[in-house]
Amino acid sequence: RLLKSGPPIRSCSRSPPNSTKAFPGPRKGYDVNQKFHAPKGVAEYVPPDSAGFLAVKSALSRSAELAGYSYVELPIFEDTNLYVRGVGESTDVVSKEMYTFDDRGGRSLSLRPEGTAGVVRAVVEHNLDRAGLPIKLWYAGPFFRAERPQQGRYRQFNQVGVEALGSEDPALDAEVIAIAAEGFQRLGLKGFRLLLNSLGDTATRVHYREILTSFLANLDLDPETTKRAQLNPLRVLDDKRPQVQAMLVDAPLMRDVLSDSAREHHEAVCTYLRELKVDFSDAPRLVRGLDYYTRTTFEFVHDGLGAQSAIGGGGRYDGLMSDLGGQELSGIGYGLGVDRTLLACAAEGLEVTSGQRCQVFLVPLGQPAKLRLFGIAAQLRDHGVSVDLAFDDRSLKGSMRAADRTGAKLAVILGDDDLAAQTAAVKNLSTGDQQTVAIAELAETIQEML
Ligand code: HAM
Fold first, then answer.
1. 228-265 in b/e burial notation, b at 16+ Cβ within 10 A?
2. Which residue minimizes the CA distance to atom 31 of ligand 1?
3. CA proximity to 65, closest of 165, 171, 143, 140
């Protein structure tokens, strides 16, 4: 149905789409000499680095596809309340880092700071939970957090993520973790570690909150942290300041008060992970920056990245779907940071791209040869060979320099005499060997030579 009619588009009768109410619009006037730069703190990729970015994104996506996850493409902005309710009002992500704006209809929207709330919203909205469970979905794209930019921490960054909803089986927790690890391994990464914790179920959390609140009440915390301790004590454990961490050394651990069922779940996840040969370290102090987590939580860290060492993280969320108006189904998922994974590959000296823009470069010498090579380019591309050709009627020398820059393996050179003889010269750009090939056999010969 969707394919025939296109995706549903919401209209709102409250205000006309061209109303400018409450929308500031572009700033009036501009400096004609202004130089434009990308906004502060965004990660952008241009050749040759962009090829590495794509390679990382597709390696991380591939493991989700191979595990039977279906792709979702979701909006980049959502109702601000989705994140307030889903991710948590007192989290840094929601209270300090969201890009929030009013649209022309006066609705408060936010650029997505993370993917889980949007996926769960889409599952509820499209009744995806009426089909077989668990529902397994994957996504990839940009996310936005107004953080203080530094190496590995950007205001627009990229994640590949999965969410599996509707099963409480600890084997699913282990599978989700294993496919994340498999994505990193697919790239050849070695220096990453998996940290695993359980944040307990709802019953555990109520009890733990009480004992943690009374522990924090006896500490000499600054006024803002004291307020946070009352609002959301678990957040204080995530405070990165060394002086706060020093005070937390003796803080009670969730691990010590886990309910029997949360403990059994955690132990089963550990058993499955060992079975799957996924190495992990027990991390009873691991807390995450988003409020929806319950039970299994995990983070992948890479030791070559300095302060921003988390290359991915995730966990289980028992109450999120019902908080967002759906049925009580638990979910589990992860978000892997594409930008940081690319940095991790660089830190390990891994070549994540071939460095090759095309396989074959075509060099026409004269107009008739150029026309003929256009046809040959199309024919080779039909056979799945990547092809580029020299434009602007360059000299042979200039064209060969251009061929070298693309990293192509072969160059095909065609001049008037070759055309008359219905042959072309095929040059191996790494060895310098050249041979004459009949044009009729070009596609076949080139495929063999590649
Ligand atoms: P998260 O831990 O906030 O989790 O983000 C996941 C990953 O995104 C991080 O480990 C990191 O690699 C990358 N990342 C986050 N912020 C930045 C940034 N400012 N710059 C560069 N990379 C960044 C989530 O977002 C959850 N939605 C994951 C999840 C899915 N949990 C359950 N399902």
1. bbeebbbbbbbbeeeebeebeeebeebbebbeeebbeb
2. 314
3. 140
pTM of the model: 0.90
Both tokens assigned to 390:
């020299």
Q: What is the DSSP letter of 153?
A: B
The pLDDT-based confidence of 1 (bands split at 50, 70, 90) is very low
Which residue owns the Cα nearest ligand 1 atom 11?
337
Q: Is the peptide bond before 75 cis (omega within 30 degrees of 0)?
A: no
CB atoms within 10 A of CB 116: 25
Conformation bin of residue 435: beta by default, left when phi > 0, alpha when psi is -120 to 50:
beta
Tokens for 236?
């204080």
The count of other CB atoms within 10 Å of the CB of residue 326 is 19
Q: H helices within 256-395, ranges in order?
A: 260-275, 320-323, 338-347, 367-382
- Please give the distance, rounded to the nearest whole angstrom, from the Cα atom of residue 335 to the centre of ligand 1: 5
| Mean pLDDT score of the chain | 92
User: What residues flank ligand 1, with Cβ below 6 Å?
Assistant: 114-116, 145, 147, 152-154, 157, 159, 161, 163, 289-290, 310-315, 333-335, 337, 339-340
What pLDDT does residue 13 have?
A: 41
DSSP class per residue in 211-243: HHHHHHHTS---HHHHHHHHH-HHHHHT---HH
Yes or no: say if 294 and 199 are a contact pair by the CB < 8 Å rule. Answer: yes
* Rounded Cα–Cα distance for residues 27 and 340 (Å): 34
Residue range 323-356, pLDDT digits in tens: 999 999 999 999 999 999 999 999 999 988 867 8
